[in-house]
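for the writeup, i need someone to sanity check this before i put it in the appendix. the sequnce is what the collaborator sent (i think, or maybe the updated version? ugh). structure was predicted straight from it, no edits. if anything looks off just tell me and ill rerun, i have time this weekend
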Amino acid sequence: MYNKKKRNYPHYDFENFKKACKNKDLIYIPNDVLADADNYFRLRGKKQILDFIENNGLENLHYLYSNEWKNNPNKNVIIMIDNYEFTSWGKLGFIAFRYNNKRNKWIIKSFHLSKNMNDAMRNVINKADIINKLGGKI
């Protein structure tokens, strides 16, 4: 039975999201997400992030799940977020996004390393002292 809080197929068509990346005005990226993309993937600024997505930088893209937006101020309207993992530069990444119908904009909610990294990958990152350089965010 369908669980409205979490579902096992995408709520949005990823190709529509990817196509929207061509028009930078159709995408909103909060400052904390911009900082994470820079820290973890050296993607500096909105243009680099959107070019990366548009040009298939999200390698081995794998849909994880969709869930309701927890911080939705209007509890009468269900807003879903799609969550994916991908690889890039040997790193396992995580991206989450949603669509705002009122503003006709996509919002990237997260763009960082995945919490599902295996121990070997985590050890390599630790050895390279990346975590300390990134503010201990893994």
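The first helix runs from residue 14 to 20. Helices lie at 14-20, 31-41, 45-54, 119-127, 130-133.
thx in advance!!
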